[in-house]
């Protein structure tokens, strides 16, 4: 109760006396649907129980007054509250336009009501579009607003509505410490925030011991047993209606297959609910022997049903909030509650895109019993809220103030500042060289620095820091504003933590290395790290042939063989960050030994190291040099000599190159049959030598449905540096990475 710690006892006493001597606090509670009434009812009971301090006016609107949603205003009457005003504000249609029109209709009708009631304060709950209309009307009519459950996070348009109401509200009652911190971060006055807990928990935590068998039998049948039924409650996601309807269909299919007694509640009034009801009727849910489909269950009875259920499934906030009080297993489907704090009883199925996933979740959760969670309340919210209401000083100015954090003085905008080029520092850690570059948003390498890559960890990290500091200083001189540092390195990388997990044999002392922390600390810039093959794919996505392509694969043909996979516009890392190790696709069971320890990998045939190995063998047997070639005694045999010999007619060299091209082509065919990309990009110094061989193998070996793939040679001069830069630049343009 931070608010009360910051408020002197004397001031609180004076305020209560001042308000009490003038008149009772006139409180208007507006409720729009069955869900918000379950949170507001305990507060309404508390206000009604203290008539010496409060006058209560109840306004009912929204889906409360619609028959299809259970005419839930009746439960308000059954609770013995006088409804002062009923407003029909819902425009039927259950689509996005109907939601907007409903807000508009409420805004038209509410001013007359508020003008007549003249409340001192209006209590608004949550994040529904009806609540936004209430808050907007009250704010414009200079009525103080107390917002319940502000500061929380979820995954739909409700988030935006909730935060919009927060900005309109004068006082805030939040349920969790995180929500309180969010409100403070949103510049709300700390003294006007009360951490009270969820009002519904005042009822929940004392509800489980009541008689429940008669309630279960009434809603689910005489033969039902505790912990042997499911409660399903799923709403449309207004930002992706089509997907949410498909997910609901899959949920019903899974529940039918699971073959347990199930209580299905109709969805709320949001856009898409009509289509969801059609899905229920299409599948015969209302007449299925295992299902009971209902429009509404009174809250007192509903909490008994979820308290003794074997599982609750859906995407209602009730599942991740209230049900935790009983330890009932919950399966939360999709993104509607993304960001909500949850207890250990909640199993999230974010991508509920198959019936099998949902069915597997049911098998994991059904019948379990978890510890009771008190994340959202301890059962004492209402006394805190009433005390908070009594402390409100109506003599204080109505205009709310925001507590902005201190900021530096503004630097006046001049033409040089405006024309600064947004750029990234790109670092490429190769087996031989260490390179740092300033790369512009358009992919132009403004300045590049190259040094030999040191052999030890300490020397290497010291050189990286030195080169980055030098490049960052030079960026000022070339009018570039550095947004961050991107690092491309060989080996297996955890990009989330910025750690090199395991390195290739080409870079020594480079395992379990945290690159992000020391570089970020030294430069005071954000740092991203990824594998060089992944960086090459990102470079193609932003600057190269992969721009705008949904699914493509990049193969790097250089000293080793690497690559990256872009699927549905996003880079694939894999569960342990070793996806797209394309060089280690095995194309022969008894092929040459690879540096990874295996045999027959693509890299063992087609990498620069493999070609150099074969060139040395030919040279040792005096079979490499042909007419037109010469080598100095001290000159090291390389893959370039093998390629030159093949071009000049050396049949053995040509055969080695054809075998390498075939191995690479077979690897590409395996990729086509696994990922089915529409484009394959060959990158690196050997790409142009392999492209025709790869196309030929695809023509001969690939399935007909995969032969249409395009195979091209990268036109990027420096994919490693450009990919490292794109780690930074993609973030600054708000791409998800």
TrEMBL record:
Record Gene3D superfamilies: 3.30.420.40, Glycogen Phosphorylase B
Top-level lineage group: Eukaryota
Record keywords: Allosteric enzyme, ATP-binding, Cytoplasm, Hydrolase, Kinase, Metal-binding, Multifunctional enzyme, Nucleotide-binding, Phosphoprotein, Transferase, Zinc
Gene Ontology biological process terms from the UniProt entry: UDP-N-acetylglucosamine metabolic process
Protein location: Cytoplasm, Cytosol
GO function terms (MF aspect): ATP binding; hydrolase activity, hydrolyzing O-glycosyl compounds; metal ion binding; N-acylmannosamine kinase activity; UDP-N-acetylglucosamine 2-epimerase activity
Cellular component GO terms held in the UniProt record: cytosol
A Pfam family hit: ROK
Binding-site residues for Zn(2+), renumbered to this chain: 584, 594, 596, 601
Pathway assigned to this chain's UniProt record: Amino-sugar metabolism; N-acetylneuraminate biosynthesis
InterPro entries: ATPase_NBD (IPR043129), ROK (IPR000600), UDP-GlcNAc_Epase (IPR020004), UDP_GlcNAc_Epimerase_2_dom (IPR003331)
Annotated catalysed reactions: an N-acyl-D-mannosamine + ATP = an N-acyl-D-mannosamine 6-phosphate + ADP + H(+); UDP-N-acetyl-alpha-D-glucosamine + H2O = aldehydo-N-acetyl-D-mannosamine + UDP + H(+)
EC number assigned by the record: 2.7.1.60, 3.2.1.183
Binding site for an N-acyl-D-mannosamine: 492, 504, 532, 581, 584, 603
Active site: 532
Span of domain UDP-N-acetylglucosamine 2-epimerase: 53-390
Keyword field contains Kinase: yes
Subunit structure: Homodimer. Homotetramer. Homohexamer. The hexameric form exhibits both enzyme activities, whereas the dimeric form only catalyzes the phosphorylation of N-acyl-D-mannosamine.
Family, as annotated: In the N-terminal section; belongs to the UDP-N-acetylglucosamine 2-epimerase family.
Name under which the protein is recorded: Bifunctional UDP-N-acetylglucosamine 2-epimerase/N-acetylmannosamine kinase
Originating organism: Struthio camelus australis
């Amino acid at each position: 109760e931070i608010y009360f710690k910051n408020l002197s006892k004397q001031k609180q006493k004076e305020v209560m006396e001042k308000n009490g001597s003038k008149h009772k606090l006139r409180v208007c509670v507006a409720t729009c649907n069955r869900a918000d009434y379950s949170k507001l009812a305990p507060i309404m009971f508390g206000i009604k129980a203290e008539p010496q301090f409060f006058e209560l006016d109840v306004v009912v609107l929204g889906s409360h007054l619609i028959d299809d949603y259970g005419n839930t205003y009746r439960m308000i009457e059954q609770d013995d509250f006088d409804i002062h005003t009923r407003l029909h504000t819902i425009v039927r249609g259950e689509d996005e336009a109907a939601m907007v029109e409903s807000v508009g209709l409420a805004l038209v009708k509410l001013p007359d009501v508020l003008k007549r009631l003249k409340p001192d304060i209006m209590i608004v709950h949550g994040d529904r579009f009806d609540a936004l209309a209430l808050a907007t009307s009250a704010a414009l009519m200079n009525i103080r607003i107390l917002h319940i459950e502000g500061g929380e996070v979820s995954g739909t348009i409700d988030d935006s509505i909730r935060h919009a109401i927060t900005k309109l509200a004068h006082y805030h009652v939040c349920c969790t410490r995180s929500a309180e911190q969010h409100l403070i971060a949103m510049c709300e006055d700390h003294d006007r925030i009360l951490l009270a807990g969820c009002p519904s928990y005042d009822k929940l935590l004392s509800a489980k011991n009541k008689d429940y068998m008669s309630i279960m039998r009434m809603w689910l049948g005489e033969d039902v047993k505790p912990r042997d039924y499911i409660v399903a409650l799923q709403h449309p996601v207004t930002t992706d209606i089509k997907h949410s309807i498909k997910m609901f269909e899959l949920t019903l299919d899974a529940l039918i297959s699971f073959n347990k007694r199930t209580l299905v509640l109709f969805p709320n009034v949001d856009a898409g609910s009509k289509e969801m009801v059609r899905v229920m009727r299409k599948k015969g849910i209302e007449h299925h022997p295992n299902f009971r489909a209902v429009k509404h269950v009174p809250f007192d009875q509903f909490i008994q049903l979820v308290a003794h259920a074997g599982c609750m499934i859906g995407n209602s906030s009730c599942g991740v909030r209230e049900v935790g009080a009983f330890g009932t297993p919950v399966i939360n489907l999709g993104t509607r509650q993304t960001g909500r704090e949850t207890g250990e009883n909640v199993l999230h199925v974010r991508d509920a895109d198959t019936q099998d996933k949902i069915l597997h979740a049911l098998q994991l959760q059904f019948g379990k019993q978890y510890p009771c969670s008190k994340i959202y309340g301890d059962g004492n919210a209402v006394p805190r809220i009433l005390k908070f209401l009594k402390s409100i000083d109506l003599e204080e100015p109505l205009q709310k103030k925001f507590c902005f954090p201190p900021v530096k003085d503004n630097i006046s905008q001049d033409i040089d500042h405006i024309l600064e080029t947004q750029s990234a520092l790109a670092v490429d850690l190769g087996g031989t060289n260490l390179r740092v570059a300033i790369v512009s948003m358009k992919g132009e390498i403004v300045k590049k620095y190259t040094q030999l890559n040191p052999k030890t960890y300490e020397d290497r990290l010291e050189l990286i820091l030195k080169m980055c500091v030098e490049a960052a200083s030079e960026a000022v001189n070339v009018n570039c504003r550095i947004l961050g540092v991107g690092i491309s390195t060989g080996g297996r990388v955890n990009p989330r933590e910025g750690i090199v997990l395991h390195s290739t044999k080409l870079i020594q002392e480079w395992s379990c290395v945290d690159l992000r922390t020391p570089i970020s600390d030294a430069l005071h810039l954000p740092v991203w790290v990824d594998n060089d093959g992944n960086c090459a794919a990102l470079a193609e996505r932003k600057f190269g042939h992969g721009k705008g392509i949904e699914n493509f694969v990049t193969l790097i043909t250089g000293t080793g063989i690497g690559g990256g996979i872009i699927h549905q516009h996003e880079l694939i890392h894999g569960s342990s960050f070793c996806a797209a190790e394309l060089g280690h696709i095995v194309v022969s069971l008894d092929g040459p030994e690879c540096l990874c320890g295996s045999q027959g990998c693509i890299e063992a045939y087609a990498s620069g190291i493999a070609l150099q190995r074969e060139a040395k063998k030919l040279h040792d047997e005096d079979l490499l040099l042909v007419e037109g070639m010469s080598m100095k005694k001290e000159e090291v045999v390389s893959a370039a000599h093998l390629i030159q010999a093949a071009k000049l007619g050396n049949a053995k060299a040509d055969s080695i190159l054809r075998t390498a091209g075939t191995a690479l082509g077979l690897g590409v065919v395996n990729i086509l049959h696994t990922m089915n990309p529409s484009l394959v990009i060959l990158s690196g110094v050997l790409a142009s030598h392999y492209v025709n061989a790869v196309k030929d193998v695809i023509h001969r070996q690939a399935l007909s449905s995969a032969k249409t793939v395009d195979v091209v040679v990268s036109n990027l001069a420096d994919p490693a540096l450009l990919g490292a830069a794109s780690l930074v630049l993609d973030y600054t343009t708000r791409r998800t990475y």
